[in-house]
Amino acid sequence: MGIAYKIKTMMEQSSWIRKMFETGAQLKAQHGTEAVCDFSLGNPNLDPPPALSKALEAIIKKQIPQKHAYMPNAGYPEVRKAVAQYVTGEYGVQVQAEQIVMTCGAGGALNVVFKTILNSGDNILVSTPCFMEYKFYVDNHGGKLILVPGQADFDLNIKALASRINKQTAGIIINSPNNPSGRVYPQATIKALSQMLTQKSREIGRPIYLISDEPYRKIVYDGIQVPSIFQYYPNSIIATSFSKDLSISGERIGWLALHPEAEANSDLMNGFILCNRILGYVNAPALMQRTIATLLNKSVDVSLYKNKRDRLCSELEKLGYEFMIPQGTFYLFPKAPEGDDVQFVNLLQKELILTVPGSGFGTPGYFRIAFCVADSVIENSIKGFARVIKKMK
Fold first, then answer.
1. Secondary-structure class of domain 5-48+300-392 per CATH
2. pLDDT of 1
3. Which of 120, 303, 337, 360 is surrounded by the most beta carbons within 10 Å?
């Protein structure tokens, strides 16, 4: 056998999101792209803000010595400084450039973090529903991801998380706004989580790091604000990217920030910088680093996503679908009628509607709709959603 047993097993367990994306490609080849309503992949459909093109053009034209050469592995000093200033303003804690590492997206940042903090056999906790690629990221570095069911409203279940902590627990990862539920964990939850982690860290004799994956931080609705973990818990790390809020998912640019008062701060930062190199990322792309340094407070027009959310929610509610209105992201996570999410998603496929089973996020009985699509896709899907739920009644 040419392929490693472990990778073969992983391929068999691979992301439901990608499976549905591949199914979509087949259906589009059969029926034509316009006939398929593809809600499978969270690939932003909005164009980047005009400032992105202007910033790129300015960087390309500017005469910069060794513009495309190797750089410090943590990123350009001036870019790290700009990100640190943004983090200080956004998260309410004074952060210096030395606490920032520029990364190849949030996925790169998370792998750097796990490589740095995990010993073989350690575990990372996560609340479900969650982005299940975390399982592979943690496994990459000898750890195990432990899934802990969240509450009925998709908030964190602090008691359940506390009950799963043991001496091998290196950290907890949270994702707020959450993919797939759209839930923003409220300030009270973050405060309670921080208090619990402080107590549990003392009990097990090691710091439990709180890792916050925040690529959707700027995509929130109805005046909702995403609380700052830095204001509540010193042993915290933020990982993020510009894939969603600037619609540049293909550029693979992001950063990680370490709380300045985190335990083993210097060792952690040196570890992050080393792992950024030895994992093969070496450093984040040069042009994009310089570009995003001028766009840290920019984003796509989130009101356009809100309009899509509101239109989709209005129509599905009329049809009898049950769901919580997402507070952020561009995902809707309804209950699957009759509870069998895989069967329901297969029925939607017959209507040429592509969604993802909640099983792919550790939460059977639901399904995810990525509404970062053209308005016409939403409009064309309504009759199909109606026919399928009618069959279930």
1. alpha beta
2. 60
3. 360
